[in-house]
Amino acid sequence: MVDLPLGRRFWRARPRLTRATLLLGCFAIAFAIGIAWSSWSLVCREGACPDPTQLDAFQPRQTSKLFAMDGRFIAELGLERRTLVKLSDIPKPVQQAFIITEDKRFYDHAGIDWVRVFGAFAADIVHRNFAQGFSTLTMQLARNIFSEKISREKTLTRKLKEAKVARQIESRYPKEKILELYLNQIYLGNGAYGVETAAQRYFGKSVRDLNLAEAATLAALPKGPERYNPRRFPDRAIQRRNTIIGLMRNQGVVSDADARLAQAYPLRLARKAESGELAPYFVEYVRRQLEQQFGDKIYTDGLKIYTTLDIDMQQAAERNMERQIKAIEGGKYGTFKHTTMEEYEARNANGENEGAVVPNSPYLQGAVVSMDPRSGAIRALVGGRDYDDSKFDRATQALRQPGSTFKPIVYSDAIHNGRSASYMLNDSALTVPQINGQEWTPQNYDLKFMGNIPLREALYLSRNLATIRLGMELGEQSVIEEARKFGITTPIPPYPSIHIGS
After folding, report:
1. Which burial class, exposed, middle or buried, applies to 218 when counting CB atoms under 10 A from its CB (0-12, 13-18, 19+)?
2. CA distances from 86 to 89, 185, 198, 275, 404 (A)
3. Among 502, 406, 408, which Cα is nearest to 455's?
4. pLDDT value at residue 46
5. Can 102 be counted among the known catalytic residues?
6. Which ranges of the chain have pLDDT less than 50?
7. 206, 361, 404, 478: the active-site residue
8. Per DSSP, what are the bridge partners of residue 301?
9. 173 vs 11, 106, 166, 275, 465, CA distance in Å?
10. What are the angstrom distances between the C-alpha of 111 and each of 107, 123, 438?
11. Among 167, 272, 308, 468, which residue's Cβ finds the most Cβ atoms within 10 Å?
12. Cα–Cα distance, 194 to 181 (Å, whole number)
């Protein structure tokens, strides 16, 4: 006689309970299927879901391109910086890296990966929240292209919408078309949409020329475009890249030797001039000007914009400003007691600054503007040390005292009011009473006096006391009106100190 397990003996001894339990289980499954089918039917009622046939005529937004004075490319302007490529031009390692990372059963399902659905459902029950997702490439494509009708909130309704639209897309288009759309649409951080633009911005080359390590670096980004940004977090990006290469080896798409070689490959990022990230503060300044004049056309109409920027001068300005600031941080001009940029970036790499709100840059900043004095054309503009870290433009948005650069306006006003270049000015000690009863006693930078000197000499020697006396003679209001003619719009108080830009 066969000794049955305890559980089976229990159910055999109670046939009525067994039948009732089975019947109840079948009823529960049927009820769950009915609820799911009802939700599936209602989720896209009354036009709540997009029409997948719109993909037939889908055209991503085109970016406008900025060029320097000599015609060299500077940057793109657009809501989504993207260059389209055909799937046949995307190497197999790039395709495989994304598929294995994001949807390894892509070629086996019809829009919904039921294995992942049940796995994610079990994990969500255990964690009592949406701990795991089950989005396929097709579901992600539906969410990215039809974002106006499919939100990014973590809700069951959104998932059902994605799933239903994904099934409709899969029934209409071949896998190759879906994969091509996905790889051209996906956001990969650093302002790059699609694998071609991302390859250019990170590696300075076309996606056609990427090696296995670079392909895996791009495939690491959809999970967290900012978290795994190789420019800001190189160690984190390499770790994630190597994990993906390991997955590719486990799936048999790369050999052990190729995987080891790719995992040991150094992270070689393109210089900013090669990746379309030149002069970001200048580009943003131009964008603001263009937006005022042309509106949203600059983001959608693919304009070609030629600017006054001199790329060689721009790069020289950036290098020299950075060298000078590093000299200050390094103690060349005395002890530097503040946070250096190197220390700040080290904390970034360790994740210490993640999530912190820093309204002002904690490290030393600088700005450069170089203009052609004959035309006023901007040849170089630097608004800070790292645009990704601080987008505040200290060259065009910061309010600073102009200092001696304001003096030519005083002399211009003097010429317009009949003073000649040989007009004599008094460069001697000066005391000006203030409305609060105190006295203002300005000085020349060399703490010396030159007595009576011609106007032209006072200007080219930048003599403070002679300039203040000239401005007071003309009157503060006259000087302010002259400044307005030069285009200065910020408040200028009618005090004698304005004549030396203070």
Report:
1. buried
2. 5, 12, 15, 21, 57
3. 408
4. 47
5. yes
6. 1-2, 4, 31-35, 37-40, 42, 46, 122-123, 125-128, 130-132, 149-150
7. 404
8. 62
9. 50, 14, 10, 34, 79
10. 9, 21, 80
11. 468
12. 9
Measured between alpha carbons, how far is 389 from 232 in angstroms, rounded to an integer? Answer: 9
What does 401-432 look like in DSSP terms, one character per residue? --GGGGHHHHHHHHHHTT--TT-EEEES---E
Helix axes 137-145, 175-185, angle to 10 degrees: 50
pLDDT single digits (tens) 25-43: 555 555 444 445 444 454 5
pLDDT for 349 equals 74
Burial bucket for residue 493 (CB in 10 Å: 0-12, 13-18, 19+): exposed
Q: What is the 3-state secondary structure (H, E, C) of 98-126?
A: HHHHHCCCCCCCCCCCHHHHHHHHHHHHH
Neighbours of 124 (CB within 10 A): 15
Token readout for 430 is 């000066």
Query: Which residue, among 413, 396, 433, has the nearest Cα to 480 in the 3D structure?
Result: 413
If one counts every other C-beta atom within 10 angstroms of the C-beta of residue 52, the result is 20
Among all chains, which residue has been given the structure tokens 């005083």? 410
Helix axes 195-203, 175-185, angle to 10 degrees: 40
